[in-house]
């Protein structure tokens, strides 16, 4: 148990009959009249739904212990992503639904953070940016390079993003894993 006065970003709370909610934002408010309260923005850990919730200051809330482990993506086993704990070498099978959008950027050997609660995998978090190779993209048209246009490109994972016209097949680029945006070339 914790008090709403102790909330921190990233803290996981157990609310509404055992559902897990992660604190995205919080703000302590002391109005001129009436008691103080805490305004929060919470994200459902399993569904990703974000809600606004207000608590009276000092209210007790149940916290959940979430175990975050650094793991390495090893291989695909049917519809399951297999991650290996780099300390214990234990393997963990995570289904595609739980991996979510991170699946668009995962290749063998990538490091990820796997969040677990009571043995159940909650989500897989990747670094903010990853380096991937362009598997295929059409060549840019001569003379088009001066305009800030973009074209579709297929990454080595099979996911398609928009890249500038000067990018060619086989180049290594940096991609934002939160938005899927092209961040720049990687100089090897």
From TrEMBL:
Pathway: Protein biosynthesis; polypeptide chain elongation. Residues 130-185 form the Elongation factor P C-terminal domain. The keyword Cytoplasm applies. It holds the Pfam family Elong-fact-P_C. Involved in peptide bond synthesis. Stimulates efficient translation and peptide-bond synthesis on native or reconstituted 70S ribosomes in vitro. Probably functions indirectly by altering the affinity of the ribosome for aminoacyl-tRNA, thus increasing their reactivity as acceptors for peptidyl transferase. One of its GO terms (cellular component) is cytosol. Residues 68-122 form the Translation elongation factor P/YeiP central domain. Coiled coil: none annotated. SMART domains: EFP, Elong-fact-P_C. SUPFAM superfamilies: Nucleic acid-binding proteins (SSF50249), Translation proteins SH3-like domain (SSF50104). It is found in: Cytoplasm. InterPro entries: Elong-fact-P_C, NA-bd_OB-fold, Rib_uL2_dom2, Transl_elong_fac_P/YeiP, Transl_elong_KOW-like, Transl_elong_P/YeiP_cen, Transl_elong_P/YeiP_CS, Transl_elongation_fac_P. It comes from Streptomyces cacaoi. PROSITE patterns: EFP. One of its GO terms (biological process) is peptide biosynthetic process. Belongs to the elongation factor P family. This is Elongation factor P. The keyword Cytoplasm applies. The lineage of its organism: Bacteria, Bacillati, Actinomycetota, Actinomycetes, Kitasatosporales. Gene3D superfamilies: 2.30.30.30, Nucleic acid-binding proteins. Keywords: Cytoplasm, Elongation factor, Protein biosynthesis. NCBIfam families: efp (TIGR00038), PRK00529.1 (NF001810). GO terms for molecular function: translation elongation factor activity.
